[in-house]
Every structure is written in structure tokens, then in C-alpha cells.
Amino acid sequence: MLSRVADNLYWFSRYVRRAENTARLVGVGSQLQLDLPRSVDFAWRPLIDTVGVGDVFAELFPEAGRNVGDAEVMRFLLLDRRNPSSLGSSIDAAREILRGIRDSLPQDVWEAVNDLHIYIDGDGERSIGRRYRIDFLNRITDGCLKVSALLSSNVSRDIGFQFLRLGTALEQADMTTRIVDAGASGLVTPRNEEDRETFRNMQWMAVLRSLAAYQMFRRQMRQRVTGELALRFLLQNAEFPRSVQFCLTRAQRVLPSMPTRPEVERRMNRVMGLVRNADPVALVQGNPTTLMDEIQMHLGGLHEAIAEGYFNG
């Protein structure tokens, strides 16, 4: 397979999964906003910083400050093409890649991605408000899952499919840490200190729900939601498909079907060790965002090794 085609397949799967999880990330805040009483202060700005585009937002909107409203954040995260990580930008990028590799993937995949593109352009602006936002996010999530299902069901298990799997696994691992990061970033500020623990657990419940993990959490953990248990489940659970460890294990299992690249294997082992050795109890008592940032940096290093080993030769 040409390295250009492998690169495109890898990035196509990453952009589709990024779009899905951007919708899920916004869903964390939207669901919390609906559940919380009006007396509780809710901050939207941490969602932007969680995605890693705080500098872009500050440059585009220098007067916004920290107390930016939900409409501005929604537009920036969902529709603004000046934001390279926005939902619209991700679908546009996936669609553009697909134009060049349409012979490598089923026609149904093109139609599904094109439907998402048309829907975002047609209904995105009215979905910024609270009334239609949840329906819009659910429609995007379902559309991205449809693309993933078409890839899983209708693509031959050749080397190209392995690059699709690799991109999907790494992007999901990265976005899971970012959604966890959002839940630990102080979205909610209670007026009374005695309410802090209650609202913190509500945040973790919203994180689990946004990752479609709440029912599986209850089924496996059989306890009420706490920060420690939610972190343990989303970071280290070996059976839930969106946990970081599950995604990294899936990516690691792809590597034997590809040409050997020692640097990729070394980077993979390093980030897996970081996740496996994490202590959820200490994380909850300290600052979970520090570990999430570290995992994201290691995933970035793993991506660079993959690009150098397979795409830049």
C-alpha cells in the first residue's frame, strides 16, 4: 500500500472519531447545564482549553475572557472552521480525505460522511441554542457511529483496514482523556462548600453518560458514581471499548500485522505503562488533569513515531 493512502486512511478514521467525541464533549457541559440548579455557577471556557485550542480562541476573541457564554463556546467548538478541532472542521477534513481515496472505501461511507456535512451546514446554526442542541449532538454521534459501523462491516481486513483501526484507537484514547479532563476541570462551582462533593460526582456522572459508559459502569462496578471509580473505569477497564487501556490494547494488537517499527512499539509500551500504573485514588485527591495532559503528550509522541515509521518514508 502507498504510504499516502495509508496516511489518509489513518487520518480519515481519526477525524470521524474526533467529530463524534467533540459532540460527546459538548454533551458533558450541555447535560450538566440541564441538571444543575440555577444557583450553581457553570463555566464553559474549560471545554475549549480541554480540546487544546484555548490559544486559538483567545486570539479570535480577545475580549471574551474566562466568563464566556455558552452560545459562543458552542459555535466555536461545533461550527467555527477557524478552529481546526471543531466538529465542522473534522467532518470537512474527513470528507476531503475521502475524495482522494473513494476507491479504497465503500460508496456508503462517502454518502454517510456527505450527509453529516450537509446536516452540519444546514442545521448547525440553529442548534447552538439549548432547545435543539441535544438533538443535534445525538444526530452527529449517530452519524459518526454509522460511518464506523460501515467501516467495520464492509471493509476487507487488509493492511488498509489496520490503519483505520489504528487511527480509531488512538483518537478514541486521546478524546477519552480530554472528556475526562473536562469533567475534572471545574465546570461547576457550587455556592456552598458542603455541596462540592455532590456536584463533583454529578460531573463524573455526566462524563460517563457522554461516553455512553454509565450503564456499563453500573453493571461492572455495582457502586454509586465517584471520581475514583469513574477514573478507574475510563482509564483502566480492559473490557469497555472507550476506556484508554482498551483503546491502547486494540492499537497494540494491530502492530504485528504491520512492518516492524521499534520506535512505535517503544512509544506504545511507554504510554500503556503510564495508564496501567495510574492511581485513581491519588488522582482524585490531587489533580487528574495533570495525568490526562501527560497521557495526551505521550499519545502525541506515539503518533509522531507512527507518522515517521509508516507515512514519511
Question: Main traits of this protein?
Answer:
ATP-dep_Glu-Cys_Ligase-2; 313 residues; 2 strands; 1% strand; mainly alpha; 72% helix; single chain; two-stranded antiparallel ribbon; DUF403; Alpha-E domain-containing protein
Counting DSSP H or I runs of 4 or more residues, the number of helices is: 15
Number of domains: 1
- How many individual β-strands? 2
Helical content (DSSP H or I, runs of 4+): over 70%
> For the report, how would you describe the main beta sheet?
2 strands, antiparallel
Distance between the termini: 13 Å
Low-confidence stretches: none
Protein name: Alpha-E domain-containing protein
Organism: Pseudoxanthomonas helianthi
InterPro entries: ATP-dep_Glu-Cys_Ligase-2, DUF403
Pfam family, one: Alpha-E
Structural overview:
- The chain has helices spanning 3-35, 45-51, 54-60, 70-78, 87-100, 107-123, 130-154, 159-183, 196-210, 214-221, 227-236, 244-254, 262-276, 280-285, 288-311, and strands at residues 41-42, 188-189.
- It is mainly alpha-helical.
- It has one domain.
- Strands 1-2 form a two-stranded antiparallel ribbon.
- The two termini are 13 Å apart.
- This is Alpha-E domain-containing protein.
- InterPro entries: ATP-dep_Glu-Cys_Ligase-2, DUF403.
- It comes from Pseudoxanthomonas helianthi.
Chart the SSEs and their pairings:
Elements: H1 3-35, E1 41-42, H2 45-51, H3 54-60, H4 70-78, H5 87-100, H6 107-123, H7 130-154, H8 159-183, E2 188-189, H9 196-210, H10 214-221, H11 227-236, H12 244-254, H13 262-276, H14 280-285, H15 288-311
Helix pairs in contact: 1-5, 1-7, 1-8, 1-9, 2-8, 5-6, 6-7, 8-9, 8-12, 8-15, 12-13, 13-15
